[in-house]
Design a protein that fits this description.
alpha/beta; 8-stranded parallel β-sheet; about 15% strand; 10 helices; single chain; 8 strands
Length: about 300
């Protein structure tokens, strides 16, 4: 199985400030732990995407706000280099789609920042400036992958991704996340509206839930939905803040549990997979879990 790994040092330039959990140290730790594995990966460089590609999801005024470096809030930082980092984070997904389309790789892991799944069409929030995975989904459809299934196992609900596709029956959004946690969305009765009704599926976990509770979701709830939807490609918002050590959440999911989640995802369909990094704020656990994910993807 040919697995692409997509990363660029430009992601380190997105400066969130001293003490911010979404720091460049996250990717530094991932790079260090993958060093001896890179000979077995297809190493790809992302591109800085055009405004035209961003506008597949985001309106002009939102793009311009990020480009101009306008402040967002204390959590979601827009520094002098954030725009270039953010458009290159989007570009990782574009490069992954192109490489899969050209049969260079079968699967890809995009080690990017800033993350994306909280960003709505017109609002940066939750550390996210552009919605990386939503733009990747739109680009995938332009390349012929008409039915896209998005799986989001970040501990925080991907409200932005859900909102963007809430009325869309060509993109299925599936999320597991902690209840009573930022951003407070993703209730089980949020299933989509209009043509998109039935194409959003949210699965809530109580604080302190561990492997047994979350694996029940990935062993029993995911497969029937994928079988019915029959996707052409699966995109994964890979947020590792569900891990028991993470400082921004309250789940007790172990590395073994995350490995089983990843295994279940990879076994659920014979289609291309792209994993896009979202959260994960204990840098040592993050690096370990990313490496484990990539090793599973290579099998």
């Amino acid at each position: 199985m040919q697995v692409g790994y997509i990363y660029d040092e430009i992601y380190l330039l997105h400066d969130t400030g001293f003490g911010h959990p979404e720091s460049s140290e996250r990717l530094v730790a991932i790079e260090e732990v993958l060093e001896d594995l890179k000979d077995e990966l297809v190493l790809l460089k992302p591109i800085a995407v055009s405004q035209e590609l961003l506008e597949m999801v985001h309106p002009f005024f939102h793009i311009q706000k990020i480009k101009d470096g306008e402040p967002i809030n204390s959590d979601t930082v827009n520094s002098i280099d954030s725009y270039q980092s953010a458009i290159t984070a989007v570009g990782a997904g574009v490069v992954a789609i192109d490489a899969i389309k050209n049969s260079e790789i079968d699967r890809a892991f995009c080690a990017v920042r800033p993350p994306g799944h909280h960003c709505t069409e017109d609002m940066a929030m939750g550390f996210c400036l552009f919605n990386n995975i939503a733009i990747t989904a739109k680009y995938a459809q332009k390349q012929g992958y008409e039915k896209v299934f998005i799986i989001d196992f970040d501990v925080h609900h991907g409200n932005g991704t859900q909102d963007i596709f809430y009325e869309d029956d060509t993109v299925f959004y599936f999320s597991s996340h902690q209840t009573m946690c930022f951003p407070g969305t993703g209730m089980e009765d949020e299933i989509g509206i209009g043509e998109g009704e039935g194409f959003t599926s949210n699965h809530l976990l109580m604080p302190e839930s561990g492997d047994e509770m979350i694996l029940d979701i990935y062993e029993n709830e995911l497969q029937p939905l994928i079988d019915e939807f029959e996707p052409d490609i699966i995109l994964v918002s890979a947020g590792y803040d569900l891990h028991e050590s993470d400082p921004l959440a309250s789940l007790n999911v172990t590395t073994a549990g995350i490995e089983q989640i990843v295994t279940n995802i990879l076994n659920c369909a014979d289609v291309p997979f792209i994993f896009m990094l979202e959260g994960g704020y204990d840098v040592n656990a993050l690096a370990k879990n990313v490496r484990m994910t990539i090793e599973r993807m290579m099998r």
